[in-house]
Amino acid sequence: MATATDTFQSLFVNVNGVKTRFIVAGQGVPLVLVHGGGPGSSGEYGWWRNIPALAQHFQVFALDRIGFGLTDKPEDELGDPVLARHLADFIDAVCLKELYMMGNSMGAYGVAKYAVDYPDRVKKMVLVASGSIGAAMGLEHKPSEGMRAMRRFDSEPTRENMRAVLEGLVSNKAGITDELIEGRFKLATQPGAMASQKLQQKYRQRLQTDPNLRQQYSLLHRLPELTIPTIMIWGKEDRFAPIEDLGYPLRDMLPNLRAFHVFEHSGHQVQNDEVEKFNQVVVDFLLEP
Predict the structure, then answer these.
(1) Is 268 a catalytic residue?
(2) pLDDT (tens digit, 9 = 90+) per residue, 50-59?
(3) Beta-sheet pairing, 122-128 with 99-104
């Protein structure tokens, strides 16, 4: 499997005491890519099919979020407030002032949260298939096939269950190679990684019962008012955050979206299914005046 690190730099930076790994590639306006959650997630595995094309136009930064990839693992807490603080601190640590941002799933929530907190710094953003944004906007949906696969891996971390996780994320099964499974499995089972997943689950449980935490998490009264140029991309075959339950309702709740792109043959990780089409849509949007 050719990965982003075959061509571009993999670096570490001290982010307010958190040793943070990131990939950087290209020149131009900074574009920060924020990966989703789940076992074995990282900046590289979230965006390795997109970085080479995007780096032809932008200076691309793809970080491993706290608790994921090769970035430090927290010991006591890992939820959206911790992830949001780490993302903001990372952007400061690499000295970015004005930037484009793109996130997938839980990472899209991180992008949206950064944008509502720092609207003067984000030039444009791309939000890809995010049940987390749906939840922050008050939408509900039943546990999906993809979520169930992640829970099985959490209780029984095997390569077979990692394959099932990846099959829940993408529609194109041909892209799920043994090398990809092995790479994500190693990240998911390294010291501290399983504990980080449990800390996230603990946070999600608290989110259901703590009204103050839910208020902090909510985007209901902020995201619809945001005027930063934004597009949303969703896969019609998403088995993790179904478009009927979450995508279309979100589209209707966000009046300032520039476009809502439906990819007919994509799952939850649209960027890893219809790769060339995805890259072109993103580049065209970010480069247009």
Answers:
(1) yes
(2) 999 999 999 9
(3) parallel
Catalytic residue among 35, 86, 261, 268: 268
- In angstroms, the CA 101 to CA 98 distance is 10
Starting at the edge strand found earlier in the chain, the sheet holding 18-25 runs 9-15, 18-25, 59-63, 30-34, 99-104, 122-128, 230-235, 259-263
Which uninterrupted H or E stretch holds 25? Answer: strand 18-25
Q: Give the Cα separation of 127 and 111 in Å (integer).
A: 8
| SS3 (DSSP) at 109 | helix
DSSP reduced 3-state for 23: strand
| Burial class of 140 by CB neighbour count within 10 A (0 to 12, 13 to 18, 19+) | exposed
Q: Which CATH architecture has domain 4-287?
A: 3-Layer(aba) Sandwich (3.40)
pLDDT, tens only, 19-57: 999 999 999 999 999 999 999 999 999 999 999 999 999
For 219-231, write each residue's pLDDT tens digit: 999 999 999 999 9
Structure tokens given for 207? 């989110």
For residues 266 and 237, is the Cβ–Cβ distance under 8 A?
yes
Buried b (16+ CB within 10 A) or exposed e, 44-77: bbbbbbbbbbbbebbbbbbbbbbbbbbbbbbeee
pLDDT of residue 198: 93
**Contacts of range 114-121, beta carbons closer than 8 Å, 24 or more positions apart:** 114/84, 114/87, 114/88, 115/226, 115/228, 115/230, 116/219, 116/222, 116/223, 116/226, 117/84, 117/88, 118/88, 119/226, 119/228, 121/91, 121/96, 121/97
